[in-house]
Amino acid sequence: GLHSHLHTCVDLTVDYRFTSVFKYVSSSKKLLKQFSGAEVVVTALHYVPQINSLLVGFNFGSFQIYNLTDLSLDHSNPYSKISAPVVDFIYQEPENDPKNLVFVWVAQGPSEFACSLSPMKYSNIALYQLLYEDKLKCGGPGGHVFSNFKGCIGRFDHFLSAEPTSSDSLASVDSRLVRCATLERLHQGCDDASE
What is the pTM of this model? Predict the structure, then answer.
Protein backbone atom coordinates (compact mmCIF):
# COMPACT_ATOMS: atom_id res chain seq x y z
CA GLY A 1 0.00 0.00 0.00
CA LEU A 2 2.81 2.48 0.78
CA HIS A 3 4.48 2.18 -2.62
CA SER A 4 1.27 2.71 -4.58
CA HIS A 5 0.00 5.41 -2.15
CA LEU A 6 -3.04 3.35 -1.16
CA HIS A 7 -4.43 2.91 2.34
CA THR A 8 -6.09 -0.13 3.85
CA CYS A 9 -9.66 0.51 4.92
CA VAL A 10 -11.90 -1.78 6.97
CA ASP A 11 -15.59 -0.94 7.35
CA LEU A 12 -16.38 -1.85 10.96
CA THR A 13 -20.06 -0.94 10.57
CA VAL A 14 -20.82 -2.81 7.35
CA ASP A 15 -23.43 -5.01 9.09
CA TYR A 16 -25.22 -2.03 10.72
CA ARG A 17 -25.18 0.64 8.02
CA PHE A 18 -27.49 0.57 5.04
CA THR A 19 -28.22 3.05 2.23
CA SER A 20 -30.51 5.26 4.29
CA VAL A 21 -30.35 3.73 7.80
CA PHE A 22 -27.74 3.45 10.56
CA LYS A 23 -28.43 0.83 13.22
CA TYR A 24 -26.71 1.48 16.55
CA VAL A 25 -26.30 -1.99 18.05
CA SER A 26 -24.88 -3.62 21.18
CA SER A 27 -21.96 -6.06 21.15
CA SER A 28 -24.56 -8.87 21.14
CA LYS A 29 -26.06 -7.33 17.93
CA LYS A 30 -29.21 -6.11 19.74
CA LEU A 31 -30.66 -2.97 18.13
CA LEU A 32 -30.32 -0.02 20.53
CA LYS A 33 -31.45 2.78 18.21
CA GLN A 34 -32.08 3.28 14.51
CA PHE A 35 -31.27 6.57 12.77
CA SER A 36 -31.58 8.00 9.30
CA GLY A 37 -28.17 7.48 7.70
CA ALA A 38 -27.85 11.22 7.00
CA GLU A 39 -28.26 12.04 10.72
CA VAL A 40 -25.27 10.06 12.00
CA VAL A 41 -21.76 11.51 12.07
CA VAL A 42 -18.61 10.16 13.72
CA THR A 43 -17.39 13.07 15.89
CA ALA A 44 -14.43 11.43 17.68
CA LEU A 45 -11.95 8.64 16.92
CA HIS A 46 -9.16 7.45 19.18
CA TYR A 47 -6.89 4.42 18.79
CA VAL A 48 -5.58 3.01 22.09
CA PRO A 49 -2.62 0.66 21.48
CA GLN A 50 -2.63 -0.65 25.09
CA ILE A 51 -6.06 -2.24 24.49
CA ASN A 52 -5.69 -2.56 20.69
CA SER A 53 -9.05 -0.87 20.29
CA LEU A 54 -10.63 1.94 18.35
CA LEU A 55 -12.95 4.23 20.31
CA VAL A 56 -15.67 5.75 18.11
CA GLY A 57 -17.85 8.65 19.27
CA PHE A 58 -21.02 9.82 17.55
CA ASN A 59 -22.98 13.05 17.25
CA PHE A 60 -25.91 11.43 19.10
CA GLY A 61 -23.76 11.17 22.25
CA SER A 62 -22.96 7.47 22.39
CA PHE A 63 -19.70 5.65 21.76
CA GLN A 64 -18.48 2.20 20.75
CA ILE A 65 -15.30 0.23 21.40
CA TYR A 66 -14.01 -1.89 18.50
CA ASN A 67 -11.41 -4.60 19.13
CA LEU A 68 -8.92 -4.39 16.26
CA THR A 69 -7.44 -7.84 16.94
CA ASP A 70 -10.52 -9.57 15.52
CA LEU A 71 -12.48 -6.48 14.26
CA SER A 72 -15.31 -7.15 16.71
CA LEU A 73 -17.54 -4.72 18.58
CA ASP A 74 -16.65 -5.01 22.29
CA HIS A 75 -18.99 -2.37 23.72
CA SER A 76 -21.74 0.10 22.82
CA ASN A 77 -22.60 2.77 25.33
CA PRO A 78 -26.38 3.07 25.92
CA TYR A 79 -28.24 5.64 23.82
CA SER A 80 -29.71 8.69 25.57
CA LYS A 81 -31.84 11.39 23.93
CA ILE A 82 -30.21 14.14 26.01
CA SER A 83 -26.53 13.46 25.25
CA ALA A 84 -24.30 15.93 23.44
CA PRO A 85 -21.88 14.72 20.72
CA VAL A 86 -18.76 12.84 21.84
CA VAL A 87 -15.87 15.20 21.09
CA ASP A 88 -12.84 13.48 22.64
CA PHE A 89 -11.50 10.35 24.37
CA ILE A 90 -8.70 10.15 26.90
CA TYR A 91 -7.05 6.86 27.90
CA GLN A 92 -5.73 6.45 31.44
CA GLU A 93 -4.02 3.45 33.00
CA PRO A 94 -3.92 3.20 36.80
CA GLU A 95 -0.43 3.05 38.28
CA ASN A 96 0.54 0.04 40.44
CA ASP A 97 -2.89 -1.59 40.23
CA PRO A 98 -2.91 -5.41 40.23
CA LYS A 99 -6.34 -5.54 38.55
CA ASN A 100 -6.80 -5.87 34.79
CA LEU A 101 -8.50 -2.55 34.19
CA VAL A 102 -8.03 0.80 32.50
CA PHE A 103 -10.01 4.03 32.37
CA VAL A 104 -11.37 6.00 29.45
CA TRP A 105 -12.59 9.56 29.84
CA VAL A 106 -15.37 10.42 27.36
CA ALA A 107 -15.86 14.12 26.67
CA GLN A 108 -19.14 15.38 25.25
CA GLY A 109 -20.20 18.83 24.20
CA PRO A 110 -21.15 21.14 21.38
CA SER A 111 -19.28 20.33 18.18
CA GLU A 112 -18.62 22.68 15.29
CA PHE A 113 -18.08 19.69 12.99
CA ALA A 114 -21.42 17.92 13.40
CA CYS A 115 -25.03 18.69 13.98
CA SER A 116 -26.06 17.46 17.40
CA LEU A 117 -29.22 15.40 17.80
CA SER A 118 -29.56 16.88 21.29
CA PRO A 119 -30.38 20.39 22.54
CA MET A 120 -27.45 20.24 25.02
CA LYS A 121 -25.30 23.40 24.97
CA TYR A 122 -22.77 22.48 27.66
CA SER A 123 -19.88 20.06 27.97
CA ASN A 124 -19.70 16.93 30.08
CA ILE A 125 -16.92 14.51 30.97
CA ALA A 126 -17.48 10.93 32.10
CA LEU A 127 -15.07 8.29 33.38
CA TYR A 128 -15.54 4.66 32.32
CA GLN A 129 -13.73 1.64 33.74
CA LEU A 130 -12.84 -1.03 31.18
CA LEU A 131 -12.22 -4.52 32.53
CA TYR A 132 -10.00 -7.12 30.82
CA GLU A 133 -9.21 -10.77 31.41
CA ASP A 134 -5.49 -10.55 30.58
CA LYS A 135 -2.70 -8.05 31.22
CA LEU A 136 0.82 -8.20 29.76
CA LYS A 137 3.56 -6.02 31.28
CA CYS A 138 5.38 -3.70 28.86
CA GLY A 139 8.66 -2.01 29.71
CA GLY A 140 8.95 -0.16 33.02
CA PRO A 141 6.41 0.20 35.82
CA GLY A 142 2.84 1.02 34.85
CA GLY A 143 2.93 0.05 31.17
CA HIS A 144 0.70 -2.84 30.12
CA VAL A 145 -1.18 -4.33 27.17
CA PHE A 146 -4.69 -5.59 27.96
CA SER A 147 -6.73 -8.21 26.09
CA ASN A 148 -10.00 -10.16 26.25
CA PHE A 149 -12.49 -7.41 27.07
CA LYS A 150 -14.87 -8.25 29.93
CA GLY A 151 -16.98 -5.10 30.39
CA CYS A 152 -17.37 -1.34 30.71
CA ILE A 153 -18.75 0.46 33.78
CA GLY A 154 -19.49 4.17 34.18
CA ARG A 155 -17.73 5.50 37.30
CA PHE A 156 -17.92 9.30 37.26
CA ASP A 157 -19.88 11.96 35.38
CA HIS A 158 -19.45 15.74 35.66
CA PHE A 159 -20.96 18.69 33.80
CA LEU A 160 -18.37 21.33 32.94
CA SER A 161 -20.27 24.35 34.16
CA ALA A 162 -19.57 27.88 35.31
CA GLU A 163 -19.60 26.55 38.88
CA PRO A 164 -16.96 23.75 38.96
CA THR A 165 -18.20 22.23 42.24
CA SER A 166 -21.77 21.89 40.96
CA SER A 167 -23.14 19.32 38.56
CA ASP A 168 -26.32 21.34 38.02
CA SER A 169 -26.29 21.73 34.26
CA LEU A 170 -29.55 23.64 34.15
CA ALA A 171 -28.09 26.57 36.09
CA SER A 172 -24.99 26.76 33.91
CA VAL A 173 -24.04 28.94 31.02
CA ASP A 174 -23.00 27.20 27.81
CA SER A 175 -19.60 25.50 27.89
CA ARG A 176 -17.29 24.12 25.24
CA LEU A 177 -14.45 21.68 25.75
CA VAL A 178 -11.22 22.87 24.14
CA ARG A 179 -8.76 20.03 24.88
CA CYS A 180 -8.31 16.95 27.08
CA ALA A 181 -5.08 15.13 27.89
CA THR A 182 -3.46 12.87 30.46
CA LEU A 183 0.17 12.62 31.48
CA GLU A 184 1.75 9.32 30.48
CA ARG A 185 5.06 7.58 30.94
CA LEU A 186 6.72 6.22 27.84
CA HIS A 187 7.40 2.44 27.88
CA GLN A 188 9.40 0.24 25.56
CA GLY A 189 9.24 -3.51 25.04
CA CYS A 190 6.73 -6.08 26.29
CA ASP A 191 7.10 -9.11 28.50
CA ASP A 192 4.81 -11.38 30.49
CA ALA A 193 3.56 -9.73 33.73
CA SER A 194 4.18 -12.97 35.64
CA GLU A 195 7.97 -12.77 35.22
Answer: 0.81
